[in-house]
Amino acid sequence: MIERFLELVEAETSDGKTHRFCVGTDGVFVDVNDVKWYGSRMLSGGDREVALNGVAPAGELHFAYIQDPDGSDLQSQMMALGADYVLDQPIRFYHQALDLTSPIPVPDGAPRLNMTRKMKSLKISQSGVQNRSISVPFESAFENRRGAKNLTYTTTDHA
Questions:
Q1: What phi, psi does 152 have (nearest 5°)?
Q2: What percent of the chain is helix, strand and coil (3-state, nearest 5)?
Q3: Which residue spans within the chain are E strands per DSSP?
Q4: Is 2 in contact with 16 (CB distance < 8 Å)?
Q5: I want to staple 105 with a disulfide (CB 3.0 to 4.6 A). Which of 77, 86, 98, 109 is the partner?
């Protein structure tokens, strides 16, 4: 059996909605549980690194697109929702194995959870007349690792 993996992202928002994306792939992917994941080549997950030299880098889910002059303004809609729409809400990253031996790639089991983080903010930018991007930074795997634990030990504690 030849396998390939899809990167899937599931983000919850403050209004209780769950949004599912298939990163870097166009179309709609339906997993073995009949859950739909919406894909776009304009969506990227960025690098999710581990701590290096005492720095715990965060990650970012990034959507870059060209604004249709006749379409609705997605950036304005996101700004109207505000950063609280995603602040401290969970974002989950999954790997979905695909069996490539069949004529059409099929899921090989359910998506496997890779990691869960919390979204930190909402970043919106534009370049030129129509180039737009929306990013959702999320916490590092080692968030607050160096934070003080505020524990006080007495002689009895050490005994």
A1: -115, 125
A2: 10, 45, 45
A3: 3-12, 18-23, 27-30, 36-40, 43-44, 59-66, 90-99, 106-107, 112-118, 123-127, 131-138
A4: no
A5: 98
Is 138 within 8 Å of 116 (Cβ atoms)?
A: no
Which amino acid is it at 127? S
Q: 89-109 as b/e, with b when 16 or more CB fall inside 10 Å?
A: bebbbbebbbeeeeeebebbe
Please tell me the distance from the alpha carbon of residue 13 to that of residue 114, in angstroms, as a whole number. Answer: 20
11-62 confidence digits (pLDDT tens)? 999 999 999 998 888 888 899 999 999 888 888 776 555 555 555 567 888 8
Return the residue matching tokens 């031996």: 101
Structure tokens given for 35: 């859950």
